[in-house]
Amino acid sequence: MNFPKQISTCCTPLLSCCIKPEEAAQTAAIFRALGEPARLQLLSLIANQPAGEACVCELTEPLGLSQPTVSHHLKVLYEAGLLEKERRGTWIYYRVVAERIEALRNALALPQKTQ
């Protein structure tokens, strides 16, 4: 059997990656935080409040979760940079960080395929 001496490449290499490694790492951390359905629900609940913010005491009943569980999920979202918090007396109010959501949208922006 005769084999060709030189194997040519069948594909041309990709020109570049559209997302930088550090941006990919940050986006992956956000997806890990949102990988729990309760956290995704929390983010949605807070974002859709008339004032754009909510306290733990307002979030337990809609999700049917205990206060410690909700607090844990809020901490994960906060540490991922998706929420910011403000202490008011004994209560902590959380609101969505719009810039992080926009960065997530941009990271997911894929070109539309033409048919």
From TrEMBL:
UniProt-listed SUPFAM superfamilies: Winged helix' DNA-binding domain (SSF46785)
Molecular-function GO term, any one: DNA binding
Keyword entries, A-Z: DNA-binding, Transcription, Transcription regulation
Cross-referenced InterPro entries: ArsR-like_HTH, HTH_ArsR_DNA-bd_dom, HTH_MetalResp_TranReg, WH-like_DNA-bd_sf, WH_DNA-bd_sf
Domain HTH arsR-type positions: 19-115
Record's keyword annotation contains NAD: no
Superkingdom as given in the UniProt entry: Bacteria
Protein name: Helix-turn-helix transcriptional regulator
